Amino acid sequence: MNFAILRVQKLKAAVAVRRSMKHAFREQDTPNADPQRLMQNTHIGAQTVAEGMEKFNARLPEKVRKNGVLAIEYLITASPEAMQGKKRREQDDYFSDALSWLKERHGADNVVYAGIHRDETTPHMYAYVVPLDDRGKLNCRHFLGGAKALSDMQTDFAASVGKVHGLERGIEGSRARHTTVSQYYAALGLAERPTKALTAQDLKPKVLEKKLFSVVEESPQMVAERLNQEMRAHYGPALKEAATARLARTRAKEMAKTAKEKDLALQKLKPLVDGLSESQLQDLAKQAAVKRQENKVDQEAERRVMALPKLKRVHGAVQTFAEKALSALKLVSEQWKKVDWGLVERESVTEMHENGWTLRHALKIVLEHSPGRAGDSKEKVAAMLKEVPDTPGKEPSVREQKKDQGYSR
């Protein structure tokens, strides 16, 4: 069957929107995308992450409810065989009608950016929508509130857009599995295991105990459990064998893919390194190691940025730092590398200490949560804390320490 596919994701923080847009604009590594087809992608409403974030921020109201949904990310496509069976013009027509449906549903100005990815296996469109209601307030519940609203939206999309392009709605409320046991074995290339035939005798309750004037038999629940055990004993070894074979095949494919990628990388690098001396090759290796470390630090910094909204809900010194960090991020459109983290850290430590926390605890909070300290090793953090003199003030309770540790990892 050819199905229309519509999925949604709620984004509750500006950093989450920016992170998603970085994927949309391919400003971060996307392993499943083909670099050779990058130019086939389409951007509508913005051409860069900065431009997309600017339009997003411009649509946000002055007052934003705590933990409210700031944006809805829509993904629109069709079942792979249906989408790949369409010509480019037919795909574009489908996406164009889908975008019109979104604009009619939310208002054209609230669809801040949309795009089409054609550098992945199945072409798909995505869109970022600020969920403003008729009063100009953020109100995601109005559009996506509850299972019924989501189901009605799927039905309306299939009827208004999918049907025009030969696509149907998925089975409403279906929980069906897509692979039967027979198909599973066939896919593995194994001989189908003989089925265990149930006889009328198997279904009859067995006698558990004979008494002088009565007989104790299995209850219906006991019969069902007995049959289940027999089935598990019959199919268990085969299922285990199938799972092992599938895992081995998956690993083999991954290893082959990795080897192929390495070969391609070496082929591209070979013309660049031919003729270089041993010392020059060593310098290149050192530069690559430095780049890998920088990428590792950036990933940790981004993780810390993403954790800030949660930290803001923690009381005490952690909340103080999170509030200052989020305010600083907002001033630079969520671009964490532009934040003067040194200034944020100094102001946070000062305010924490003024609020009664010990200087050592204030510094500990900054070192563990500041994106600007993402490159500090555990040894360096421990050494810095050791040098801080004891000062009078509050210490976190055991409960606060455990809660804080839960957000720091």
Q: Ends: how far apart? A: 44 Å
Bin the helical content.
55-70%
Global shape = extended
Number of strands: 7
**Biggest sheet, in brief?**
5 strands, antiparallel
Number of helices: 15
Strand order of the largest sheet: 1-3-5-4-2
On the 0 to 100 scale, the average pLDDT is: 82
The helix/strand series, from N terminus to C terminus, equals EHEHEHHEEHHHHEEHHHHHHH
Determine Rg (CA atoms, Å). Answer: 29 Å
Q: Unreliable runs, pLDDT <50, ≥5 residues?
A: 173-193
Strand content: 5-15%
Q: Which class do the helix and strand fractions yield? A: alpha+beta
Describe the model.
It is a single chain. This protein is α+β, with helices and mostly antiparallel strands. Helices cover 56% and strands 10% of the residues. The chain is built from 15 helices and seven strands. The chain has helices at residues 14-24, 49-59, 80-84, 88-106, 140-144, 146-162, 181-188, 200-203, 220-273, 278-311, 317-331, 341-354, 359-369, 378-387, 398-408, and strands spanning 4-11, 42-44, 71-78, 111-117, 124-129, 207-210, 215-217. The strands form two sheets. A five-stranded antiparallel beta sheet has the order 1-3-5-4-2. A two-stranded antiparallel sheet has the order 6-7. A hairpin with a 4-residue loop joins strand 6 (207-210) and strand 7. The longest helix has 54 residues, at 220-273. It starts with a strand and ends with a helix.
